[in-house]
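Would you kindly consider the sequence and fold I have copied below?
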Amino acid sequence: MSGYDHDLFVIGAGSGGVRASRIAAGHGANVGVAEEFRVGGTCVIRGCVPKKLLVYGAHFAEDLVDAKRFGWQIDSRQFAWPVLRDNVLAEVDRLNGIYHETLENHKVKLYPSRATFIDAHTLDVGGERVTARHILVATGARPLVPDLPGAEFGITSNEVFHLEALPKRLVIAGGGYIANEFAGVFNEFGVDVTLINRSADILRSWDPALRDRLLQISLAKGINFKFNCSFERIEKTDAGLRIHLKEGDPIETDMLLWAVGRRPNVEGLGLDAAGVALNEMGAIAVNEDSATNVDNIHAVGDVTDRIQLTPIAIREGHAFADSIFGNKPWRVDYNCVPSAVFSNPPLGSVGMTEAQARNKLGQVKVFTSDFRPMRNVLAGRNERALYKLIVDASTDRVVGAHMIGPDAPEVLQAVAIAIKAGLTKAQFDDTVALHPTMSEELVLMR
C-alpha cells in the first residue's frame, strides 16, 4: 500500500489493539501502534490480572482459618501487604514484557507516545507526523471520578494496586462489580470497609437472587453497606477524609475508592479533525464491523462501550484484522457472553436472567439448587451456594445460567459452551454427574 507509512496504525496497545496489530501483521500488513503508558492495557496493567491476584491473596485469610478444621495447625496469621503488592506488580512487569515481545516478534513498530489525528489518514505521534491507510482506535476506558468538591481526594482502581500501606477504614463508592470485588478483597485484609451506593441494589444487571445472596454473605463477613446515598462533597481532615452525604451524617474514613463506572477514552484524540462521530453515550460510534462513519477508521474495545470485557476487545480486534487484511471477514457474536464478578464469593452468569427470559420468551421454567458446598460444611461455614438455570418452556433449551459460590466463574465457563450450543435441559439431565463436586448440581436439578 504505497504512499503511507503504515498499512495499519493502531492507537492503544491494550488487549484489542495488540491482538489487531498481531493478526494484521501476520497477514502481511505493515503495522505501527502508539501507546503512551504501558503495553498490555487496563486488563494486564491495572485491571483484571492484578485484581484477580489480589483476590487470590485475600482468600488465604479464610483458607488459613478453615485449615484447622482439616487438621492443619496454623500458629499465626500475619499479612504483609507490601509483599503481595510487590509480587503482583512484578507479575504485571513480566506480562508487560511478553506483550512487548509479541509486537516485536511480529515486526510491529511501537511508538511509545500519544497519537492524535491530524486528518483521517494522518497522525501526530509524539511530534512525529505518521500516515496510515487504515487506523484503529483502541484506547479503552478509564475510571469515572464524579464532578464534586473534593473528589480528587479519592483514588480509583488505577491507583489501588500501588498503595504504600493498607488503610484502617475504606469507603468504596459504587455498587457494581469493581466495588464489590475490592470490598471483598480489602475486607479479608482486615480493613473496615463501607460500600456506599446511590441506588437500592448492588449489581443491578445481575439476577436478583444472586445479588441478594452476595449482599447477605457480605454483611455476614462484616462489610458495611449504605444504600440510596449520594455524595455531596469530600473534606480532607487531619485524621483522613470526611465524606459529606446528601442523606445522613458525614462518614469519617482513611481512604475513598471511586468505583462508579468507566468512561471511554475519547478526549484529546483529535477525533473531530478526522470527522469521527461519537454516540449518545460519548463513545465512538461503530457498526457490526467496528467501522466508524469514516471509511478507513475503525474502533474496538471499551472505547466503543459495547461490552466492556477483555475477551470482547480481543475478538473485535481479531475480527477487524482478519476482515480488512486477511480476506476472511467475520463478526463478533455478542449473544451469550459469559461474565463474572470476583467478589467473595464470586458470581458467574451467561445468557438471559429469569426476568429477561420471561419478557422475551413468555413461558419459562426455572431450576435452582441452593446448597452448602462440602468444603464449607466441614469448615463450619454457613455460606451457601446458589445455582440457577433458566429454560425456555417451549423448546426445553437452557437459555441462562447464573451461580454464586466457590469457583463459580470456573464452573460457568463450561456451562456457557453448552448454552451457546443450544443444549436442552433434557441433555443436561442425561449427563452423568461428576461426584462429589459442586458442578454436579447443574445436572441434578429436577
